[in-house]
Amino acid sequence: MSEHDTPDDEQNDERPHERRDARHADHRFETKSIHAGQTPDEETGAIMPPIFATSTYVQDGPGEDRGYEYSRTGNPTRTALEDNLAALEGAEFGRAFASGMASINTVLNLLEAGDHVIAGDDVYGGTHRLFRQVFEDYDLSFSFVDTTDDEAVRDALRPETELLWVETPTNPLMRINDIEALADIAHDRDALCAVDNTFATPYLQRPLEHGADVVSHSLTKYLGGHSDVVGGALVTDDPDLDERFGFYQNSVGATPDPFACFLVLRGTKTLPLRMDRHCENARILAERLDDHPDVSEVYYPGLDSHPGHDLASEQMDDFGGMMSFGLDATLDETAEFVSATDVFALAESLGGVESLIEQPATMTHASIPREERLDAGLTDGLVRISVGIEHVDDLWGDLESAIETALD
Asked: Distances in Å between the alpha carbon of 169 and those of 189, 251, 406?
């Protein structure tokens, strides 16, 4: 769409940023991650997509562009990323945004005053803040329920329910939601089912295959993979939804710059390799933490004891690099623990090659009122870790040493 288009304006079906790159549709994930959306530059033979650092594009005549006219509306580097992400999710359409929150905001822009949204009761704190502290002011209403309980979700339905927002695994309690069952519940009421797939990535889970309408990503995390870029994305098979996402993308302007798109494309090329190591390290740490006397509970779907293990085994290809665990500790003792690590960096965010540790109660989920946080199981002793790709014995030694420092 041009700067001045509305969703009702006639669209040019030949715009590059509205075409699906189907050249690698039959290839396996590892091949798609490297090649989808990308071809060597025709003029120079450059193997990597050029960074098109331009704000505008020369037209051959008034209204006669070559597929691009203004870089908020479309940019070839962004097109390459969007096609790549769509291919990885097995989707027809992809849209990139300036952040994960910008992509979530765009989904909420589909709604109207008076509409109702159901979301999990342990969603990411930034999502909770956006819903409650921004969109409630626009006369949207939200119900936060245990989305692992299908009956609780059905009970929360209202005639005005238009969206079911799902995380799986959830952040930070690593609950596993049945995407197919939740999508069916939403569709029975003609509501949309949107899944935040940031924790799993399309390498481990592809929600559209299970009936979801929209998949959201924070590209900042595993897809970028190196803690050096911020971005978001939405993918869908629905052309009408994609058109509306494109309209809001252009109208609001929360789009990533071409260099950010280039960095994410670099990240997706190594996603399979990195995710295999993330999963391997996380599985080993989860088993060791599960046996530690100062750890009350480990939240990792790869453990047989996890209540969502069987479901995760069905809808995921592996269990990811994220986990949380509970310490028998006060808020201050837990803060001392997360501050005592050496290899694990005390920081928010996740999904980079380096390991991160944080205390949800005072960091990522601090915006959730304490009583509501505790009711959802986000205790003062809860710790969340993003397991990196370092040597697992160094990671384990770091955790053991920090526990000894803070609790013994």
From this structure: 24, 32, 29
Q: Does the annotation count 124 as an active-site position? A: yes
Do 257 and 313 lie in a common domain?
Answer: no
Largest CA distance in the chain: 75
Please pick, among 32, 78, 122, 124, the residue that the annotation labels catalytic: 124
Per annotation, catalytic residue among 146, 196, 237, 318: 196
- pTM of the predicted protein model: 0.92
Looking at the fold, whether 279 and 174 belong to one and the same domain comes out as no
Q: Which of 175, 206, 221, 283 is catalytic?
A: 221
In the block, which residue shows the tokens 């690099």? 321
Edge-to-edge strands, sheet with 141-145? 93-97, 232-236, 214-218, 192-196, 161-167, 116-120, 141-145
What pLDDT, on a 0 to 100 scale, did the predictor assign at position 194?
98
For residue 7, being part of any structural domain is answered with no
Answer yes or no: do 156 and 279 share one domain. Answer: no
pLDDT over 90, % of the chain: 86
CATH of the domain at 248: 3.40.640.10
Per-residue pLDDT, 12: 37
Could you list the residue range(s) of the whole structural domain that residue 300 is in?
272-407
